[in-house]
Every structure is written in C-alpha cells, then in structure tokens.
Protein 1
Amino acid sequence: MTPIVKPLIKTEALTKTYGSIIAVDNLDLEITEGEIFGFLGPNGAGKTTTCRILTTLTKPSSGHAFVSGFNVVEEPVKAKSGIGVVPQYLNVDGELSAYENLKLHGMLHGMEWGKMKMHIEKMLEFVQLSDRASSLVKTFSEGMKKRLMVARALLHEPKVLFLDEPTVGLDPQTRRNIWGIIRRINQERATIFLTTHYIEEAEVLCHRVGIIDYGRLIALDIPEQLLKRTGRFVVEMLDDDRSKARFFKNREDAGRFVASLDRDAIIRKSNLEDVFIKLTGRKVID
Ligand SMILES: Nc1ncnc2c1ncn2[C@@H]1O[C@H](COP(=O)(O)OP(=O)(O)OP(=O)(O)O)[C@@H](O)[C@H]1O
Ligand SMILES: [Mg+2]
C-alpha cells in the first residue's frame, strides 16, 4: 500500500483581490513535508501576497489555505505556531544587538528562558554570527541581517519556513552562502517555501518550482521537467541586434542546425527563464 503523504501546505482556489487587482488568482497548491518549494515569478506576480496569506498576515478574499492541517483563517494561532517567516524586507532592529533581537523574538513566542538561551546560541552558530552576537545590528551588512532574520525565524523550531526573496540584492557569494544555509535547514529541520525572481535560485535550490504570473500558477513541476517543456538545448542567433532563440531536444540536433546557418550562433542549455518566456512571452526580470 502506498503511504498517504499529507501536504504540509495546501491551498484551494485561493484568491486575493485589491479592488480591481487580482493579486492571487485561484491558486491550488500542495506542498509535502521535506520539500524546498520555490515560487518563481516577476515583480507583482503575487508571491508576497501568497506568503502573507499562508503566514496569517493577510486574509484571503476567497478560497482556503492550510498549514500543518490548520486553516490559516479559522485557526491562525495554531497555524502560526509551526511557521517561521523571513519577510521580503529587512525588519531586524538596528538599535539592538543580534542576541537581543533573537531574545525579543523568543519572548514574543513565550519561550522558556533556559530553552531560549540554548536555541539563541545554537541559531547564531548555525548562521555563523556567534562572534557578532553582541554587536548592534545597524553595523551589520545586508547579508548578515538576512542571516539573522533566518536565525530568528528558526528560533522556535518551526516545521515550515517561509522565505520571501531570501537573497534579493545580495552579492553572488553571499547568495550562495544563504543557499547553503537553506539546504542545511531543509536537511535538518524544515520544509521550505521560498519565493524568488532569480532563475538560478529556483533551478539549483528547489525540489519543485511553481511559476506564478499575474496571480496565476502557470506551471508547477520539478525543474528538470519544466526545462523539458522548451527543449533542453537552445541555439541563440544574433539577428539585427536582436537575439533569436530556437530550442532542441538534444545537442546533436542543435549542432546540426548551427552548422546549417550562415551566421554566428551559440549553443547553450535552456533555463527556467526560457520556460517563462515560452509561457508568457516576457522575461522574469525585464
Ligand atoms: N496592500 C496592497 N494594496 C493594494 N495592492 C496590493 C497590496 N499588496 C499587493 N498588492 C498588489 O498585488 C499584486 C501582487 O503583489 P505582491 O507583492 O504579492 O507581488 P510579488 O510577486 O511579491 O512582487 P515583488 O517581486 O515585487 O515582491 C501587485 O499588483 C500589487 O500591487
Ligand atoms: Mg514580493
């Protein structure tokens, strides 16, 4: 008998409107325990709104959402107890130290002091900030602040971690450092729901990727399957200063096509940007 795997996050026809804007449009999602799920989409696609609904901060206009089996509207306190959130914008207190920021969060969650102290130390070490525990957060770099937000979100040992654009604006090295932390959290602790508009982040970090555009889920699969939708190899030709692309299932066909051309062309592997263009006619980041 196949075991029944219950989804940790589930949405049913979830919709959020702001006046005439449909921020989230009939979203049906199921995310199982242990996944790193990536929500990929351009600015204004509805990523943050979805995160806010799932983390009980925004009420949906219609439809339902469940986290750990709890309806986020009917049982927000229970739903929230198993959730850690790293919001899109930095919201750590610069006038407090890293340690004090975490202590404040632990107190707000009603953590018992002995346990809280142990967890603060463990989490600071986990995000490699132990040596800066007593520094004021206003002296931190953006990447350090993001890491502190991750530590804060994990302090009460949530089963699900929501990361809204965890690496936006960070340099490539810091981005990779955060990816390493996310992978370790996933291996050791939690299911991850992350939003991003970085193609590479979705491709290399996430087990499954949902592509969202104008509030609608337009594709959902493992990256490899999404990539097969375009053809795995791309021939890019420079034509009148515009790049034109043709897609091929394998490198041999792409090579034969290039050999038949009378102009320069490159062969590269396709990426999720190509998939997004194929689905919408636009780039993720314009
Ligand atoms: N509080 C609000 N009031 C009115 N409109 C809103 C509000 N919050 C979001 N929206 C609108 O809903 C849509 C989705 O916004 P959302 O912030 O969820 O997008 P996003 O995918 O997170 O974008 P970004 O990549 O820029 O963070 C946008 O059109 C936005 O203008
Ligand atoms: Mg957003």
Protein 2
Amino acid sequence: MKKDIFPQSIASGYAFCNRADERRQLKSHINRVNHTVLVAPRRYGKSSLSHQVASEWESARRIYIKISLYSAYDEETALELIAKGIQQAVRKMTSGFSMDDFRTLLASFSGFGLNASLTTEGANFGITFNFGSDSKTPAVSLTSLGELLKSMDKIALKGGWNIVFEMDEFQQLSSLETSYAIEAQIRDAVQYARATAFIFLGSNRHLLEQMFSDKSRPFYNLCRIIRLNRIAAEDYRSHLHDAAGIQWSRNISDEAIDRILSLTERHPFYINALCSRLWAEPEPPKPEAVAPAWSMVVDEQMPVLRNDFARLSPTQKAILNQLAHYPEAYVTGSGFLNRLGKALSTVRDAFGYLKNMDMVYQNDAGLWAVMDPCLSFDLRRQR
Ligand SMILES: Nc1ncnc2c1ncn2[C@@H]1O[C@H](COP(=O)(O)OP(=O)(O)O)[C@@H](O)[C@H]1O
Ligand SMILES: [Mg+2]
C-alpha cells in the first residue's frame, strides 16, 4: 500500500515532523483555556500544527471543532460558518441529554435563531440554526453571535466538556464590510470563555497580524501568539530517515538528505513536494537523483510564481533577484544599494512591500532571502 508520508495538505501522524516546542506550547494554551493565534507565512504548517495538537488532545469529553472562513465572502456566510461550528459542538454535548435537560437548553438559546425542536433526530434531539428568514424563528443575526458562542461555552462548562474551536482563514473576516462588528462579537465571547480554547490562524500573515496587534482592533491583546519558523535541519534529518524506513525498510544517505534540505531550504511545503516525488521510486534516492527531481518540482511551480513575479515593480524584482543570488543582512546598507543602483527610499518601500507579502524572509543566519525556494532557484538558474 502506498503511504502518504509527504502530503500536499495537512500533515498528521507519521507525516508530521517534530515541532515539539510549538506543540507543547499550544497544548499548554489549550489546557489552560488560553487563546492562540498561529502566525507564519503560508504553507509553513499552521493548519497541520493546530490539527495535530488538537487531535492528540481530543477525547471523549474534549471536542475539537474546526471551521474555515475562506469562503466567508459576506457577513451572512461568515455567520453561517461559525454557527455551524457551534451547532456541531452543541449537538455533540447534548447527545446524551434528557428531554428536560434539552428543554432548559432551548430556553437558554431562545431568540438566537435556533430552529430547535423536541423532535428526535435518531437518538439525539435536533438542533439547527436558522439562516434564512423564511421560518417562524428569527435567523441567526450578527448581534447574537457573541451570545451563541457564550452559550456553547456555558453548556461545556456545566457538563464538564472542553472545546477547542479552531477558526482557519480568520483574516477573511477583516475584508468584510462589517468586520469590526463581527470581530467585536467574537471578542466578547472569547474573553469570557472558560471551557473553550480558541485557535485562530490564516494564510495571510500580514492581515492576521494586523488584526491581533493593532490597538484599535477588537482582538488586540486577546491571544497569545505562536510564531512558526522553518523546521530545524536536525528534525528533518531524523524525519527523512524514518520516512525511508517506512517506505523501503532501507537507509537513505546523509548526502541525499543534505541535498534535499539545501535545495528546498527546508520550506515544509517544498520538502513534501520534492520528497513525494522521490519516495515514489522503488528505492531510496541516490544523492545525484535529488537535483533532477527538484528541477521538475520547480518547473511545475514556475507558471504561478512567474505570474506573481511579473506583477512586481522593477525595484521589487531587482531586490528579489539580488537576494536570490546573495542573501543580505542590511538591505538598506550602502553595499546593497550600490549593487542595485537604486536610492534608499525606493528600496525601503519596495522591500517593505516584499516583506509584508511574505516574498522575503530572514533565514537562520539572519540574512534576508527569497521566501520561495523555487523562485529563488529559478532566478539563479537564469544567470
Ligand atoms: N510539521 C510538519 N511536518 C511535515 N510536514 C508538514 C508539517 N507542517 C506542514 N507540513 C507540510 O507543509 C505543507 C503546508 O502545511 P499547512 O499545514 O497546510 O500550512 P499552512 O496552514 O501554514 O498554510 C503541507 O504540505 C504539509 O503537509
Ligand atoms: Mg492552512
């Protein structure tokens, strides 16, 4: 059977490499009902980390709810996505309720757009939120979102449950017209939660960071921040040795591993893209086989990356091109400016944009480099 040791999406179980410190940290936040925002560039492993920790934590009375707001294009869909998560948690917690318990529960939810009835749904009582306006009960509205989340937490507290409520692509909310009001509703519930630990994450680091660190926004100071960097080389080495054992019951050479780590620059997404190719072969890769496989990964990725690159200004392009060849500690220093032949203010603005867009990053040596190892590799192989 082919095992997916290097998935393109969420890594879990034996596909998950280390992150021991971040795991411990997130777990302790959950256990203490502290709320967390996971911050990292896209495809660094935020969703994987959250999923791994919450799945390990999950048990009979610990509920892991996970919603993604990527499709929340307006207030209504955002509400619906969040309310569905609440609905899922409440259904789980009430599945063992008596009719009387359930009646009390309904009273506490009254007026929140809950279309609950005492009809049984299999062994459970039905609870469904109403999102349309075509029914007798009012639809879930923005002003009741905070109360709904709080009610979920109250049921949990009373029944001895704990909940992890994960909201992925959370920055999506900030693009909505009523973003401030929605964020305020969520904040209201989050700050009073006693049995629910919230985890916020998203693929736009810049927007997410603004939401949580801007003093004028509702989420300011509400959460602890966990920042993810690239996974350490040592950890990847033992992960890849293990992966060779799983796939071929054979060793892979340290030299082959070094080439994998250096070409991908330990970017988690690209390690997986490269290794899923290499691991499809009947035996462990020889060191010489790594570079050709990497070229194929790069060729596959370049159409999209080239499009992104084409949209940049000439100065932004020049900076990336420089950094692809020579990572640099002082991008506003005279050496770098001279090599680019550009003025300080121009470079500062262009670099600021690249930083916000996560197109550059500071590597382990503290040097600024191109974030995407494929783009970096392609810029170098052009000349
Ligand atoms: N700890 C990890 N170990 C192994 N692979 C990982 C790990 N974290 C992420 N990955 C891989 O990296 C890629 C991006 O992961 P994902 O969790 O979707 O990132 P994000 O949510 O930050 O965009 C996926 O291919 C995933 O399998
Ligand atoms: Mg993700």
